[in-house]
Specification:
single chain; alpha/beta; Aldehyde Dehydrogenase, Chain A, domain 1; Aldehyde Dehydrogenase, Chain A, domain 2; 5-stranded parallel β-sheet; 12 strands
Length: 350
């Protein structure tokens, strides 16, 4: 299959998802109805996957599959991928922390001309197989290049596995002899300078609360200047109190609050988010850690020390070097590779 045909198929898939979110159906009406029922159904299997969260994930995927984004992403590898003849079988072990988080790897494998062998998470086992079936309607040539397995896999040429830091040790043990990308836990950070306004905090709230904070691109840590007062921050994120409508989120919030109070920990609390001073990057659900910095040089040194554990950094208008603007962490572009590893370069070179 020619590279252009692969790209066109995914562009059509993106159009379908965009139409579905906007409810402006032009084609495949029956599939839209099936998909709508599926979006409602997934919450039964995983209460974290609310209808709103699934639609947010679809919005991000649809944006990434717009033609100009696909063309920009593929341009550095177009010649190499056009010449690729025999595709390799790539085992992709997907995470299930947020809806369709493994879609990018699905896209990477197929656009690179390789064969996809997927093991979906039990927490997210419905949505990506549906998108794969839909893709086959747009391009039947993918039929022999897409396979899902729930059993033991013995034959593969390379592995892409996403999981926790603990699971990565098992992945290394079992798949270390194959060419591989093995991803571990990462966390995201927000830098505050004290000049933010209400709109900034509203956008930052999206980085914190989208998907209830379960993603590696969710901000779990604030770096703030010495003497910083959090009044404006709490006021600016007030509209995100909707998270308490989730029983799972509210239970986590109440549990962590109880534990901290029993241990006489110093907390800041706005009744749906706890702020706790802590040097760690990883905060529990319903909790946001913060840490003070003295100056920009100290801030840079702090980030460099934990660079291997940081997925992304956000700041006001993306002013801090290498950071994204507030509100953009959950909408990565195709070239914003997880863990900073160029997946397409890896696949193209097999």
């Amino acid at each position: 299959m020619e590279l252009n045909k692969r790209l066109e198929a995914f562009e059509k898939l993106g159009t379908f998802l965009s139409e579905h979110n906007s409810q402006q159906y032009q084609t495949l009406l029956a599939e839209h109805e099936i998909f709508e029922k599926l979006i409602v159904q997934v919450k039964i299997h995983n209460p974290w996957f609310t209808e709103n969260n699934v639609r947010l994930a679809l919005k991000g995927i649809a944006l990434s599959l717009e033609r100009h984004n696909l063309q920009t992403w593929i341009k550095p590898y177009a010649e190499l991928l056009s010449e690729k003849e025999a595709g390799k079988k790539i085992l992709v072990i997907m995470a299930g922390n947020i809806p369709m988080v493994g879609f990018q790897d699905f896209l990477h494998v197929l656009v690179s001309g390789n064969r996809f062998l997927g093991k979906v998470s039990s927490d997210d086992h419905l949505l990506i197989p549906f998108l794969a079936a839909l893709l086959l309607q747009f391009e039947p040539g993918f039929k022999d290049r897409i396979e899902f397995s729930d059993g033991k896999v013995k034959e593969m040429d390379a592995v892409i596995a996403t999981g926790s830091t603990n699971s990565s040790r098992y992945f290394d043990y079992y798949f270390g002899k194959y060419p591989h990308i093995i991803r571990k836990n990462r966390h995201s950070v927000a830098i505050l300078n004290g000049l933010e306004d209400a709109a900034d905090f509203q956008s930052l709230g999206n980085d914190i609360f989208m998907y209830y904070g379960l993603g590696c691109r969710n901000v779990s840590k604030l770096l703030v200047p010495e003497g910083y007062r959090f009044d404006s921050f709490f006021e600016g994120i007030f509209n995100h109190s909707y998270v308490l409508e989730s029983n799972k989120y509210s239970n986590n919030y109440e549990y962590n609050k109880t534990i901290y109070l029993l241990n006489s920990e110093k907390l800041l609390d706005n009744n749906f988010l706890l702020l706790r001073e802590d040097t760690s990057l990883s905060s529990p659900i319903g909790v946001l850690f913060y840490e003070y910095y003295k100056d920009e040089q100290g801030l840079k040194s702090r980030l460099e020390a934990d660079a291997a554990e940081i997925q992304c950094v956000v700041s006001q208008k993306g002013a801090f070097s290498g950071s994204l603007p507030f509100g953009k962490s959950q909408f990565p572009m195709l070239w914003d590779y997880a863990d900073g590893i160029d997946t397409l370069h890896f696949l193209a070179g097999l």
